[in-house]
Amino acid sequence: MEITTSTIKDLREATAAGVLDCKKALEASGGDLEKAKVYLREKGLAAAAKKASRAAEEGLIEAYVHTGGRVGALIELNCETDFVARTEAFEELAHDLALQVVAARPLYLAPEDIPPDVLEEEKNVYRVQARETGKPERIIEKIVEGKLQKYYQEVCLMKQPFIKDDGLTVQDVLTEIIAKLGENIVVRRFARFELGD
Please, what is the end-to-end C-alpha distance for the chain in angstroms? Predict the structure, then answer.
């Protein structure tokens, strides 16, 4: 199948990938636009994984205060260079993440940041709940693990469904931006403030 410039342009507009990357993706997918999007996403995820070990010491601190001034958030988002920190995509990500913190009320950045005693307490609660249903002991740990994953989605910023597209997690969005901008990006820390809390 012939790859036309208009097809490359359509893919580029949909994904923000480079022209050559779009052409390669279309060639690899036989000209199918949807398959080419998946190809680019997989390629981007692999590239993002390679960048994860690079130091991210530039960036910015974004503040968001919700209308009425009763709730707000601060978030530190780091990248490798000042150049990337000043791009519209990076600034938009920082703003969206501050909005996420206000709206979704995460308590921790990632599951590994949950204190062991809090985690153990949650597991114990889930075990008791599972035992009360009369399930066999071998199934109880699977139930506990499933409930723990749900708990992570509620309290860990990186595991939460993204407020602008709940089909993606915050980690998915971050990975896509890493692939797009070509640098490691790290959410260093965040704080949420609510009047009287």
Answer: 61
